[in-house]
Amino acid sequence: MHTDSRTRALVLFLGPALAAIGLFFFVPVLAAFVMSFTDFDIYSLGDLRYARFVGVRNYLQLFEDPLFWKALWNTLYFLVAGGPLSIAVSLGAAVLLQSKLVRCRSFFRFVYFAPVVTTLVAVAIVWRFIYHPRFGVLNFFLSLLGVTMIDWLGDPHWAMPAIIILAVWKNFGYNMIIFIAGLQNIPASLYEAASIDGAGPWQRFTKITLPMLAPTTVFITIITMIGYFQLFAEPYVMTQGGPLNSTLSIVLLMYQQGFRWWNMGYSAAIAFVLFACILVASIVQTQLQGRGGE
Amino acid sequence: MSVRTFQSIAVMGFLLLVAATTLAPLLWMVSASLMPSGQANTFPPPFIPREITLDQYVGLFTRLDLGRNLLNSILLSVAVTVVSLAVNSMAGYAFAKYRFKGKQQLFKLLIASMIIPAQVTMLPLFLMLNKMGLINTYFGVIIPGMASIFGIFLIRQYALSISDSLIEAARIDGAGDFRIYWSVILPLCKPILITLAIFTFMGTWNDFLWPLIVMTDASMYTLPVALAGLVGEHVQDTELMMAGSVMTVLPVLVVFAAVQKYYIAGIMAGSVKE
Questions:
Q1: pLDDT tens string B143-165
Q2: By CB distance 3.0 to 4.6 Å, which of A44, A79, B51, B83 could disulfide with A228?
Q3: Once rounded to an integer, what is the mean pLDDT over residues B232-240?
Q4: What's the CA angle centered on B201, arms B197 and B203, to 5 degrees?
């Protein structure tokens, strides 16, 4: 009787969560996988029987689609340029904030973190106006420095850097907090010993701080990468993927194919390519960490 | 000593410069939202309104009817937070304190599947909800948000630290399983529950892609979706768009300012490696 009631309680406690996750997460993941091998389109939306299995046709078509390669390239550009940049800014801010010379630490931490909690769509709209070629604040400051007008969001060469700047501004506070937690775990005695041995600030940073932060850095690299692979709202609001598809991301392409043109089979294939990219990149990162740790 | 003072001034000066740069876009947003129409689109760009007006905010509620979207956002964020808090806390407690076959494997499977991006689920989820008639309803947002693996993980980690003897003592006193969860576990888990509540509230408030997909009528849009929809139409109305952005961003900033400690604690707890 005793075990019976505990079993019942267990079902009560776990049931809702597992049912919700199973039904609204795992089932859709499997369904999306199946869908990616069908020609599910707007007609199938009305009647499932219109969807037929087409094998790997969606994937083949995808790999021949120049738009897909463009989107993949853009996403990797955003990831490879924006990711390390934002991590470097986070690390710099964390190290400076932890310095003994700083007062009002909690004020700075609050300010640096504020963009993280803001709504991406809203701040993307704000930055859209900051980037305005004629009336934008950014070009005004640049003109004081003698830089001629840049059409940030209208020039295919500048649109992605503009989005990267926004992303760094928006995100660096998050990783900064994690770095601060990592820095607090480094024993102060290590720094004292190094100082006695005559190590300067730069040497202490490269010989103590960086190696001691390695596990934190790997964790941050992985979560940043996963997040950056999912670039969507910034181009959706600021450029709609333009100009000349220079900011079209994988998720934006998936959204357009799936929910604008209702090519849902094709869109599901894009989603799985995104998943595969994230999986491979995460495995590579973890492997690199394993080797570094040896 | 003087070298140290000089260093201190240099570091503080640099930090202040970074702080100013970080705040500038937000301050400019607030400033422009208080300008009369057209003033922001002049050269050189004005940083402070020549005269302060609340016209843009009035316009949000009268011309654009964003009041409805504000209500949607509040309602959905609160509903998802309440429901998911109940569901996740029960499951997290069960994973921490109950023994059953396959528990470790199940938990590992859940953690591993966190790497699957949500976008993968969105197409079938849309079709499922469409079949259930839940597209363009509040349930379309609430149902997929009911449970989260991250939430279960957070609660479980915290509940693990609760001593078994407390639970045993309550059991000896005759408390049933649900009673123990409600009167012993939940009060002890209060800090992490607050953390998770803030995460969920802000996550739902700021979410964009899913409500964009699931809400099809402007009257059902959340604030971010409504705002994104206005961009094309009102691209010239800088001041109006800034007022809309303030209205969207301000609530989360205020919540964050009030409960900073819990939010930061959550990030740190989430970054603990298994």
A1: 999 999 999 999 999 999 999 99
A2: A79
A3: 84
A4: 115
Closest residue of chain A to B4, computed from CA coordinates? A101
Q: Which residues from A are below 8 Å from B74, CB to CB?
A: none
In a domain, B6, yes or no: no
Q: Which residue of A has its CA nearest to B251?
A: A118
Q: A219 in contact with B at a CB cutoff of 8 Å?
A: yes
B254 located within any domain: yes
The CATH code of the domain that includes B143 is 1.10.3720.10
Question: Which CATH fold topology does A65-293 show?
Answer: MetI-like fold (1.10.3720)
Long-range contacts at A190-193 (CB < 8 A, ≥ 24 apart): none
The pLDDT value recorded for residue A43 is 85
Task: Decide if A130 and B149 are in contact by the 8 Å CB cutoff.
Answer: no
**Residue B253 exposed, middle or buried by CB count within 10 Å (0-12, 13-18, 19+):** middle
Inter-chain residue contact A28 with B128, CB threshold 8 Å: yes
Token pair in block for residue A149: 């007008």
8 Å CB contact of A120 and B208: yes
pLDDT surpasses 50 at A293: no
A164 touches chain B (CB under 8 A): no
Answer for the pair B144, B125: CB distance below 8 angstroms, yes or no. Answer: yes
What is the average per-residue pLDDT within B187-210? 95
Residue B236 lies in a domain: yes
The answer to whether A248 touches A74, Cβ cutoff 8 Å, is yes
Nearest residue to A223 (alpha-carbon basis) of A171, A165, A294? A171
Q: Whose CA is closest to A140, among B236, B28, B238, B15?
A: B28
Distance from CA of A24 to the nearest CA of B (A): 6
Nearest to A151 by CA among A243, A232, A247: A243
Q: Which chain A residues have a beta carbon less than 8 Å from that of B228? A: 121, 125, 233, 236-237
CB A167 within 8 A of CB A86: yes
Domain residues for B223? 25-270
Q: Does residue B8 lie in a domain region?
A: no
* ipTM of this predicted structure: 0.91
